Every structure is written in C-alpha cells, then in structure tokens.
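Readers outside the structure-tokenisation community will struggle with the description of the input data as it stands. For illustration, here is how one protein appears when written out as sequence plus structure tokens:
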Amino acid sequence: MAKGKNPKGKKVTLKVAKNCIKITFDGKRRLDLSKMGITTFPRCILKLADVDELDLSRNMLKRIPDSIEKFENLRWLDLHSNQIERLPETIGNLQTLVFLNLCNNKLTARSLPMELNQLKNLRNLNLGLNHIDNLPTTLGALKELVEVGVFDNLLTIIPNSIKKLPKLKKLNAKRNPFPGPTEEEQFIDSIKRLESLYLVDEKDLCFPCLRKCQEERDKLNKLKNTVPAPLRKPDFSNLLTPNSLAKENQAEWR
C-alpha cells in the first residue's frame, strides 16, 4: 500500500450482508457488520432496511449518510468505536429507536443534530468517549430515557433538563472536567428515585393503615430529634509507654 493512502477497508456486498443477519433471543432480526474494517457505509444494506437492529460498531466509519432514515423499523443502532465526526439530521426520523450507542467516536457538540430530540422512544443513549463540551438542552425532550452515558468527554456541566428526566436511573458522567470535586457526584448520586410513590389524604386511609403511617412518621421524627452522645476521649492511663515492655524483655530474646 502506498504511503499517504488510507486503507480501503472491506467491501460488503449484499450477499455478505444477508449472511450477517442474526436472530436475537427475543426474535428480532439483527444485521451484524461489526469488526469488519468497513470505512464507508455500505449502500447495499439499504435493501435490508427492514431489520430491527443494526450493528456497525468497531469499524472505521467517518460518516453516516442521510439514508440511515430508510431503516424505519430500527429499534437498536450500535455505532460505537468508529471515527464518526458528524451525525445526519435524518437520524431523528428513526422514531422506533430504543437503543443508540455512539460511544468512542469523534463527535463534538456541534456534530450532534437538534433532531436527536425527536427520538421519543429512546431509552438508552451512550455518548461517552467523544469530544463533546456541551450537551444540547433539547435532549431533555427524550422523556423515555433510562440510561445516559456521557463519560470521558469535555463537559463542565450537565443541563438540568437532562438531570431531571422523569425515568432516568443511570447517568454516567465520569472523567469530565467538572469545576468542583463534588460536581460529578452530584450529577450521578442525585438520581435516586422511588419505584412508586402514592400520595393520598389521611381521610382516605383505613384506620390500621393510618396508624401504621403515623407510627413510621413518629419513628423518623424521633431519629431526627435524637442528639448523638458525645464521644468519650480514650483513656490510655493504664497502658505502659511505647516499647517499654520490649525494652525490659530485650535480654530474654537475645
């Protein structure tokens, strides 16, 4: 291969692609083209756009074409560990997408299209290991998000619209240059939610339930009002000075 030229990568034909279709444990059709050294998005796979899942991870892709919108039934899209620098606006048309992995690419804040906020069914979004210094607040429109990964980026703040997503259970923001030592802990540890919370008036409770609630409330109030006992200063008056026994018994050990 001549110097200065990029490797062409493996050419994927329609026949090869068809042989890469797998059936997942839940009966979905996954087109698995991962780890194949692909440098250019294979146009032939547009003829297989009815698959449910598409895996193009661990290749050398730099660009995802606008035609990605042809995968109308796609629920799972894995593009991690490529060299992607920009996402097409048409990615917002993948309305059935539930899982989107963009980890370990070359994405920046400018290369994240506004149309990402149209992925209303998205539950898992991984943007870790990129060059993102600012997250669009419009991602707060993705109300179904359960897990978000933004680790190993250039972030100094996480927008409140993302931190306060109603179903968010996991926010991985590790190894970002946040301004304070407790910033990351605030983003991650603050997401501690109850599975279910029901609020009712006291008058709507039966007597045993009301009594139990009152007892639990009294216990909590008691704990809050408890003054911790002062710690006793340890008394070492009966102990010998350090190494005194060793000094006295040295002759026995010689």
Strands lie at 21-23, 29-32, 53-55, 76-78, 99-101, 124-126, 147-149, 170-172.
